[in-house]
Design a protein that fits this description.
491 residues, mainly alpha, 2 domains, 22 helices, 59% helix
């Protein structure tokens, strides 16, 4: 009841802004963005020529975000017309390609084969470990398919077999011609302009700080021998904090998360001022038994003015989720993380292209709010919960360091795996290390962009807080107003 009524009487004028004015100009912009076609340079010309006068705040963000993204795209398509544009240098991979469709399209398979051949001529070939995995998947898909699709898949598999001898032994964009510049452009597209080497330095500094803090917490808890990662793994096995692998254990985990959630609202007025009431109408809800059995990953439903929101945690492997790892999840997935940011964004109705060109914001915000709540004393007096929070942050920064380490530092898979094991010890519940590293190898710059957004928000938030709580509130309201935005647009 407290969550439902909290701040319900706040005036609309005091809430973080949503798109309100100039419906005609907003409609003109949306129609233009909906109809964009041609090369990125042609699209950029149309967007740059649109007069922003009369647009609502949300539509202005749409316009500025799309323009910035298309500037990166224009440079990228000119220099690197390769792979899955804006996503990956590889047109197919273990997690991508027409071969993964239930009924593969022969036409799409053939188009991808043509692109694979053209990319190979530019020196861009899927790294050997991922190439072998993809070939096996395509072979199995060809055996199941029929007619033209099966023929197209076999032709694609034959091309990949020819490329094996030329495939790099290790992943990383830095291993193909101009690959470091390609990574820089992808990072600019997802986050903003920054030297990738500087990005790596920033994240490495944070990793060292987090490691030192985690070491202190582990020592207070009695874990004194071995690397930080090894000691975290030991803490994960303490049976005192493991839930029973049954309905009672899963129900208890959900109840514990809701108990942590109930302690959050008292902190929110000082940090954010008035909020839309629906942001507080949220809870942790257990998945259905069928969803748990199939191993469905955690998911959320965003609250509206008429329907509550919920986070449904994945509890299938309940013994891998010690109780002290869950409070930080509450702050990330519920309050004040996604369930404050997303409802405000939904109300602002951003154009889909804004979501495309500001992909790191939502995750960066949610990570930032974990750290914000820690600074507000959310884990005070509970070193185990603090350890859980720090472990999640080590996972986030580790992802970013793998991203830059593999793609500009040319680290090997063995080096990367060893670094993560030393840094965080236990894998994040939903992201096994090998699987996570593989995805980072295939889709460069995204994890670095998320980590940099988090660290940038933390830096700006700390500067605002030094001027007092009112300054921090204003910062948060500016960040949240009208939905996500590229980090460079956050003053």
């Amino acid at each position: 009841m407290q969550r439902r009524q909290f701040l319900a009487a706040a005036s609309v004028a005091a809430l973080p802004r949503i798109a309100l004015a100039a419906p005609d100009r907003d409609a003109e912009l949306r129609a233009m963005l909906d109809g964009l076609s041609g090369t990125p340079s042609v699209k950029l010309g149309r967007v740059s020529g649109f007069d922003p006068n009369g647009l609502s705040a949300s539509s202005r963000i749409d316009l500025e975000t799309v323009r910035a993204g298309l500037e990166a795209d224009s440079a990228m398509i000119r220099l690197f017309p390769i792979g899955r544009f804006g996503r990956s240098p590889y047109v197919i991979a273990p997690n991508a390609g027409a071969w993964r469709e239930a009924v593969p399209s022969a036409q799409r398979v053939e188009a991808e084969t043509t692109q694979i051949e053209a990319d190979a001529q530019r020196g861009v070939i899927l790294p050997a470990p991922l190439l072998a995995k993809t070939r096996a998947g395509i072979g199995a898909a060809a055996d199941k398919a029929g007619g033209a699709a099966a023929q197209a898949l076999r032709k694609q598999a034959a091309l990949l077999a020819e490329l094996v001898s030329r495939a790099p032994a290790e992943p990383g964009t830095g291993r193909f011609p101009g690959g470091r510049d390609y990574f820089a452009l992808l990072l600019e597209r997802h986050y903003g302009r920054i030297d990738p080497a500087e990005a790596h330095r920033i994240m490495l500094h944070k990793a060292r700080e987090l490691t030192a803090r985690t070491d202190s917490v582990l020592r207070r808890l009695g874990y004194t021998k071995g690397s930080v990662g090894a000691r975290i793994s030991a803490a994960f096995k303490d049976p005192r904090f493991l839930y029973s692998d049954d309905d009672a254990g899963r129900d208890r985990a959900v109840a514990d998360m809701n108990a942590a959630l109930a302690r959050v609202p008292e902190h929110l007025p000082a940090l954010f001022g008035p909020l839309p009431p629906q942001c507080l109408n949220v809870a942790t809800v257990r998945m259905t038994r069928a969803e748990e059995a199939e191993g469905k990953q955690g998911y959320r439903t965003v609250p509206t003015a008429t329907t509550p929101g919920a986070y449904y945690p994945d509890l299938k492997r309940i013994r891998d989720r010690p109780s002290w790892t869950l409070p930080a999840v509450v702050h990330h997935e519920l309050l004040p993380g996604h369930m404050i940011q997303l409802p405000i964004e939904v109300a602002a109705n951003p154009h889909p292209l804004r979501l495309e060109y500001a992909p790191a914001f939502a995750e960066g915000w949610a990570i930032y709010t974990e750290q914000l709540m820690a600074s507000e004393g959310a884990f005070a007096g509970d070193d185990h919960a603090l350890l859980g929070h720090l472990h999640w942050l080590l996972f986030r920064i580790g992802r970013g360091l793998v991203d830059t380490g593999v793609h500009i530092g040319q680290e090997t898979l063995a080096q990367t795996s060893g670094k993560l094991a030393t840094l965080q010890g236990e894998a994040a519940y939903f992201a096994p290390m090998a699987q996570d590293i593989e995805r980072i190898c295939i889709e460069p710059a995204m994890r670095a962009a998320e980590a940099l957004t988090w660290l940038g928000l933390a830096r700006k938030g700390a500067a605002a807080k030094r001027n007092g709580l009112e300054s921090l509130r204003k910062f948060h309201r500016k960040v949240l107003a009208d939905g996500r935005k590229r980090f460079a647009m956050i003053g």
